[in-house]
Amino acid sequence: MDKSAIILAGGFSSRFGQDKGLLPLANKPLIKHVLDVINNMVDEKIVVVSSKVQAEKFAKVVGSDVNVLVDASAVQSPLVGASTGLEETHGEYALLLPCDTPLVSNDVLSLLFELCINKTAVIPRWPNGYIEPLQAIYCTKPAREAAKKALSEGKLNMRSMVDRLRCVRYVSTLVLQQLDPELRTFFNINTPLDLKKAELMFKRMERKV
């Protein structure tokens, strides 16, 4: 097995009053939009949630070919979720994604996979230096070790894992913009307004088809 995908879905949104990944958008849950994009891109799909209750809810939605895992730690953070997924991943490379980016770009992800050979990670980076570690590809083994090391030292942010990796390739968002002009791939749903914006984006896309 070569490529895996780990989707982080542990967050409960107080603004929406439910699990964010299960929010409906264009007649299907947010997480299904993400899964549909990566469906033919990876050999293994993993969804990481933070409780057994969440696991039961997501298992009913994502399909039998998706492995739903519960966070190994009661502490909620993207790094904990990433570590949980990396521990169970079989692929040599693992794509890490959040569950709330329904407009994630197939073209962008394909490029990141092409660039990951002989690198420990391929991570998008904005001109201001901000990185997108939750829409990136990692070489599973070194990332797994880096995540464990960071957590053992009490670190909970993704940067703590990334800083422990060598041979990381950063890809400018200016390059990615050639594939995704509006960089909608990074648009995530945090508020009801974001959800409305996403609905409008989908309607515009449907008109173009």
Word description of this protein:
There is one protein chain. This protein is α/β, with parallel strands linked by helices and 209 residues long. The chain has a single domain (3-208), classed as Spore Coat Polysaccharide Biosynthesis Protein SpsA, Chain A (Alpha-Beta Complex). It has 8 helices and 11 strands. The protein has helices at 30-38, 52-62, 78-88, 106-115, 140-152, 158-162, 173-176, 192-208, and strands at residues 3-8, 12-13, 18-19, 24-25, 28-29, 44-49, 66-70, 93-98, 121-125, 136-139, 168-172. The strands form 3 sheets. It has a 7-stranded mixed beta sheet with strand order 7-6-1-8-10-9-11, sandwiched between helices. Strands 2-3 form a two-stranded antiparallel sheet. It is globular, with a radius of gyration of 16 Å. It starts with a strand and ends with a helix. The mean pLDDT is 92.
Strand content: 15-25%
Largest sheet: 7 strands, mixed
Give the total of domains: 1
How far is the N terminus from the C terminus?
34 Å
Supply the CATH class: Alpha Beta
Structural class based on helices, strands and sheet pairing: alpha/beta
**Superfamily (CATH H level) name:** Spore Coat Polysaccharide Biosynthesis Protein SpsA, Chain A
Helix proportion range: 25-40%
Q: If you compute it from the alpha carbons, what radius of gyration comes out, rounded to the nearest whole angstrom?
A: 16 Å
Instruction: Examine the secondary-structure arrangement and name the CATH architecture.
Output: Alpha-Beta Complex
Q: How do the helices and strands follow one another from N- to C-terminus?
A: EEEEEHEHEHEHEEHHEHH
Number of strands: 11
Mean pLDDT: 92
Report the total helices.
Answer: 8
Q: Could you name the ranges where pLDDT drops below 50 across 5 or more consecutive residues?
A: none
